[in-house]
Automatic annotation (TrEMBL):
Pfam families: YCII (PF03795)
Domain of life where this protein originates: Eukaryota
Gene3D superfamilies with a match to the protein in the record: Dimeric alpha+beta barrel (3.30.70.1060)
YCII-related domain segment(s): 24-94
Residues in the signal sequence: none
This protein's name: YCII-related domain-containing protein
Length: 109
């Protein structure tokens, strides 16, 4: 396989949010990092995973992690992008525990 060939991957990154202040402080830089990867076409989609969909409108969901569809040449490249995210740098994400799977984008809305 050529090194410069890009493929789609799914990465599911578990999160442990024990410090809400740290989460709130880090979230703007986390979002900015993701937006830059989306704008350059590296991340196709991204969003949080939840323990359940909230039943009450005023209740915040419990975030259990994040999922991306990302374009990269190798699994290690995918993990490196995740390691560079502010949530990984402050310990909210566990990139070592993330699952990465090859993915074929067959249909898009």
């Amino acid at each position: 396989m050529q090194q410069d060939q890009q493929h789609h991957w799914i990465i599911s990154i578990p999160a442990t949010i024990t410090d809400m202040n740290l989460f709130k402080e880090t979230r703007p830089s986390h979002i900015a990092h993701l937006k830059s990867l989306c704008e350059e076409g590296t991340i196709v989609l991204s969003g949080p995973t939840l323990n359940e969909h909230p039943k009450e409108q005023d209740r915040a969901p419990i975030i259990t992690g994040s999922v991306w569809v990302i374009k990269a040449g190798t699994e290690e490249e995918v993990r490196q992008h995740a390691r560079e995210n502010p949530f990984a740098k402050v310990g909210i994400w566990s990139v070592d525990a993330a699952t990465v799977q090859p993915f074929v984008l067959a249909l898009r809305a």
